[in-house]
Write a structure and sequence with these properties.
Blueprint lengths: L2 H6 L8 H8 L10 H8 L3 H25 L5 H9 L11 H17 L2 H16 L8 H20 L3 H29 L5 H4 L11 H18 L15 H38 L5 H45 L17 H15 L4 H28 L16 H27 L3 H11 L1 H11 L1 H6 L5 H4 L1
Helix pairs in contact: 2-9, 2-12, 3-12, 4-11, 4-12, 4-15, 4-16, 5-6, 5-15, 6-13, 6-15, 7-8, 7-13, 7-14, 7-15, 8-13, 8-14, 9-12, 9-13, 11-15, 11-16, 13-14, 15-16, 15-17
Amino acid sequence: MSDDNIETGGLQRTIDWKQGLAIALGVPVLILPSIGYFASYVWAFAIIVWALSVFQGFMQNFAYGELATMFPKASGLPGYAQSVFGAKDGNKRYDRSKLLGGFSAWSYWFAWNPVLAIFSILIGSYLKGLVPAFAGIPDLALYLASGATVFLFLILVNYRGLSGGATLGYILAVLSLAPLIIISLAPFVTGHFELSNITGAWLPTDWSWDLNHILILLGLMAMAQWSACAWETAAIYGPEYRQPRSDVPKALFICGAICLLTFILVQAACTGTLGIDGILAEPFSPMLPLAQMTLGPIGGSLTILMLIAAMVLIIQTAFLGASRAMYSMAEEGNLPTFFGKMNAHGTPVNAMIVIALFNMGFIFLGTPAAILAASAIGYVCANGISLFAYVKAKFDPRFSGLERPFKAPGGWQYVAAFFGFFNLPLCLVGVVYLNSLEVGWTSTIVGFVVLALYIPLWFYSQNENPIKIEKEKPAPDKSTT
């Protein structure tokens, strides 16, 4: 890392692809809040939904991998969209293209942000089922206590920079995958797994491929994407990799292969061992009865404690991703400069504190499914806009001269366009419809209100520092061609 980076207080190049992968390996844990939710709608077919969603992740992440090497200073999805849809006219303060890029980054921030609240609730739920002493504590109090403890711990760990968080990631990556794999493989070894629980309950008996059920499936794909495609987070650390051109693709696709195996395995193990009725009896924490059934009380308790450690890892992944999304937006002039303030170690500490407080408020909702459904709206918007940004970057002559050390296969802009339209509008319509069936309109309203908050923040940021905006002039043609 150069001294210039230190002096300017920018994100520091301190990690390699292994450390980025370690941080992103919390992503398989994102299946936990949805195991029971998916089973309630599509029974064993949830296994196929997860497989299709990880496949979608590969299709999208080929595009994101190329964008990462085109814009090595950009912070993942938030940075890519802002780079492509940046202001065309440096003298125009309220540029609509810049607004669109910033909105994509805000949507991505909103997609990752509530992970902290969701898994703080799940940690409290698992602890309550595991530790008898917690049985008498009100759910909300336990959820708030677990959230406050985890948030404070992660702020302290990451205060001195990302390399410290990556070191924690190395430790927790083992604790993340180990319990998922042990609990999921145990029923195959002990003989508790019954294939008939899957083949005999493939889809609900009243399932038909009409418009109603297709919309439900699109909604589930939107929520599955929130979990099974989220390994693109490995690219968000592009500005902090020592060699972003090679580190980003390695971290992305190794993590994707791991996700493909774990998402299928976890849902199949739960369905084949517990059956649909068994999963629905413990919709928030089905891994707990699975572990106790196959590993016994002591073994089950130990692996669940490891699983709780894995939940801390995914909160760490979300914490870092969301804080750097806010930093990226502030750097681009799309959020007030307060959110881009770094400490002496290159950590966007203001953003981290705001995110922690935001999630403490989310915990008061008390329902992981409702929070996830609202968050999925942001993730669908972020992916759709980012994929369209990739298409634009392939056709716009302003970007034709940029280096692309990693290139997606030929014609990938058409694949990206297909999945862009799949996200917007199809998955967006599906998740709104699914929300209306499950939790009324609350999640949808919360989702769109949070997204709409970006508009006044953006206009404020455009007035906050007009001198900077006037200096944001397009680079000469010779520098980009």
